[in-house]
Design goal:
Layout (H helix, E strand, L loop, with lengths): L8 H6 L7 H22 L1 H4 L1 H7 L4 H21 L3 H25 L16 H24 L13
Helix pairs in contact: 2-5, 2-7, 4-5, 5-6, 6-7
């Protein structure tokens, strides 16, 4: 007999199993890191945006710097507000994976990796990479948590959600 149940996309995208304290994860991911970092990529492009992307070896840095800045700002704001949290987490996960591959793998190896350039540090290798990557791994895991669990119980403009 054919299956007649349909997928409820609204529940998948907007439902949550996350407890109320998940707002702390949202605030760390959105307010502490991605929202302000995205703004800084836009207002300080030579240091944190296109200029940094060019030094790292990211292709098309003049395009990718502002693009990543906008994505981080918008997705960070959505996560702070608890709106479209799962959808907003996806590009942030991609950004963190690219950040780890482009900046932390060269530190681990001690030389350029693929198209990505090694930054100047006092030491290289496993422990140096772990030290440099701690925020990246934290943001990656926080974003994965928000993708899996959703927004939690505290959402701006949702009295029934609290």
């Amino acid at each position: 007999m054919p299956r007649t149940e349909s997928i409820n996309w609204q529940t998948i995208l907007f439902g949550t199993r996350a407890p109320g304290w998940s707002i702390l994860v949202r605030l760390i991911v959105g307010l502490v890191v991605f929202f302000p970092e995205g703004i800084q990529k836009l207002i300080f492009p030579a240091i944190l945006g296109a200029g940094r992307f060019a030094n790292i070896g990211i292709p098309y840095p003049e395009l990718m710097g502002p693009f990543v800045g906008l994505v981080e700002t918008i997705c960070g704001a959505l996560i702070i507000l608890g709106l479209f949290t799962r959808l907003a987490a996806v590009p942030l996960i991609i950004i963190m994976i690219v950040a780890i591959v482009s900046t932390k793998i060269p530190i681990l190896l001690g030389h350029d990796f693929w198209i990505f350039h090694l930054s100047k540090l006092s030491r290289y290798g496993f422990w140096s990479m772990l030290h440099e990557a701690r925020d990246d791994f934290g943001m990656l895991l926080g974003s994965i948590y928000l993708l899996i669990e959703g927004w939690g119980r505290m959402v701006v403009g949702c009295a029934a959600c609290a």
